[in-house]
Amino acid sequence: MKTPLRALLIEDSPADAALLLRELERGNYTVTAERVETAAALQAALAGPPWDIVFCDYSLPDCSGEAALEIVKASGLELPFIFVSGTIGEEAAVAAMRAGAQDYVMKSNLARLGPAVERELWVAQNHRKNLTERKQLEAHLRQSQKMEVIGQLAAGVAHDFNNLLTIIRGNAELVLLDAPQLGERPRDNVFRIIAASERAANLTRQLLAFGHKQIMQAHPLNLNEAVVNLTKMLDRIIGEDLHLECHYCSTPPFVNADVGMIEQVLLNLVVNARDAMPRGGTLGVTTATTTLDASRVLARPEAREGEFIILSVTDTGTGIAPEHLPHIFEPFYTTKAVGKGTGLGLATVYGIVKQHQGWIEVSARPAAGTTFSIYLPAIPPPVAVSRTIRPDALPRGGTEMILLVEDEAAVRLPVRRVLENSGYRVVEAACAREALEAWTQIAHEVDLLLTDVVMPDGVTGYDLAELLQVQKRSLRVLYVSGYSADVAGKNLASAPLCPRYFLQKPFATRALLETVRHCLDETQREATALE
Asked: What is the number of other CB atoms lying within 10 angstroms of the CB of residue 336?
């Protein structure tokens, strides 16, 4: 089978052009050609349908070979350019090659034309492939850098916002604790304040998630079970006009993941799919396993070799227009009407998946539906997957002494009052220096250090804990922070003298009391074990 070839000939002799085309036909090419003689005709031809190769005579009456080469180079089309001449000398041929021509063939030796064309077409094809891959990688790098910058900004905003929410929620819960005689309407108003603060906290978690800065508590997770558990509420979310189809991997697909974050990913994708099918349709959720080798990751900038679990969400909706597709994971980018979307849904999905060492592939066409495929690293099935069940009863208090270190007084006050209401003795400090001064007087009595991570004067909560635990190894530490995981969580794993207890601001009163009690009880359990 002959190879199609679109050839542009810059040649003033029709007879010589016919000889060249006949040689190409003999070389197993089916040629579509256009012959031009002037610079204007050449520019017009380059602006038309695409060409595979350019052949140019060196000596032309109205346009020199060198000028023709410059016109082709200026077009930016990067076409193979071969001089075919009866007059070009060796010196001129070398100069032409240096100027950008790929080869030259003498008209007296056209038998060399076929091999030269075959070689240059192969080189051009590989060059275009490499150029496409490089552009894809550059686009991916720019997107990653953009997301990183926005993620850093979001992390800083979330810190300040979380501190404010801690103050709002803490004081609202104190009202309920301190004034049990409140009437029904005032109590409802306080509950609304607490609910609003929780919704605001969820918003900051989304901000942190799309910048993959959210604190992740990963455990072995069977994705089949996670989807099954969530489908119980999906029917209420998608409505009666959508048909939900779930297909599960035949073997349990385990990943190391934060179940809450994975549920958030699935919910966001399902809500997007629902909104893309306003007149009804089919929504599919699928789990599967795959193995990627070197050949399968070449065309995927974010992919890598190994075993992966795929979580896919497919809809039969409106699809995504090509001009929108490169931007769908950008925060605050949305095609929905004002008030219908925040533009954080897919950005959150992107951040969570990246935080789980995975990536997302999207297949979409306008009016033909969309598929989001999430790739997560597979892990072997665990021997047992532990689950923490929170008791319904309120956490009990105690009489232990707690050293509370927090630089914002408005945050410190409600925390202190909650702890004291539960029977604990609390000593306050606004910074590490004040904490060390108090420590010299009460070190023998302190059972727990409850400290913010980032504090003024350059001494962090980690630094303070290390100083105090050198003097008292039995001291327990509970860290709190409104900062993101890359700031607040980075050193917890390397702190050998204390367990990994951490509370993300804003936290509920119940979460604070439960964590404090659990931390202190661990000290008692260890002491009993040593007896």
From this structure: 12
Per the DSSP assignment, residues forming a β-bridge with 452 are 480
Q: How many CB atoms lie within 10 A of CB 525?
A: 10
Q: What is the pLDDT of residues 12-40, one digit of tens each?
A: 889 989 999 988 888 788 889 999 988 88
The neighbour count for residue 397, using CB atoms within 10 Å, is: 16
Angle at CA of residue 454, ends 453 and 455, nearest 5°: 115
Q: What kind of fold does domain 3-101 have according to CATH?
A: Rossmann fold (3.40.50)
DSSP conformational letter for 378: B
CA–centroid distance for 469 within its chain: 38
Helices (H), 47-89: 65-74
Q: Do residues 214 and 353 touch, judged by C-beta distance below 8 A?
A: no
Please name the residues in contact with 112: beta carbons below 8 A apart, sequence gap of 6 or more.
Answer: 105, 106
Residue 389 near residue 375, CB atoms below 8 Å:
no
* Buried-state track 231-254, b at ≥16 Cβ within 10 A, e below 16: eeebeeebeeebeeeeebbeeebb
Give phi and psi for 361, each to the nearest 5: -120, 140
Whether 219-377 shares its CATH topology with 401-530 is answered no
Question: Please, what sign has the CA dihedral across residues 29, 34, 35, 37?
Answer: negative
Q: What is the pLDDT of residues 441-475, one digit of tens each?
A: 999 999 999 999 888 888 888 899 999 999 998 89
Amino acid (1-letter code) at residue 104: Y
> Architecture of 219-377 per CATH?
2-Layer Sandwich (3.30)
For 34, the enclosing helix (H) or strand (E) is strand 29-36
In a 13 Å sphere around the CA of 170, the CA atoms on its Cβ side amount to: 22
C-alpha triplet 381, 250, 373: angle, nearest 5°: 85
CA–CA separation, 493 vs 53, rounded Å?
60
Does the predicted model carry a pTM greater than 0.85?
no
Residue 341: per-residue pLDDT: 53
CATH number for the segment(s) 401-530: 3.40.50.2300
Peptide bond into 186 cis (omega under 30): no
Residues 6+ away with beta carbon under 8 Å from 172: 190, 193, 194, 197
Q: Which residues of 61-80 are buried (b: 16+ CB within 10 A; e: fewer)?
A: eebebbebbebbeeeeeebb
How sure is the predictor about 507, in pLDDT bands with cuts at 50, 70 and 90? confident
What would the pLDDT profile of 97-123 be if each residue is shown by its tens digit? 888 888 888 888 888 888 888 888 888
Q: Where are the domains of the chain?
A: 3-101, 142-210, 219-377, 401-530
- Residue among 490, 514, 507, 402 at smallest CA distance from 451: 402
Residue 448 has a pLDDT of: 94
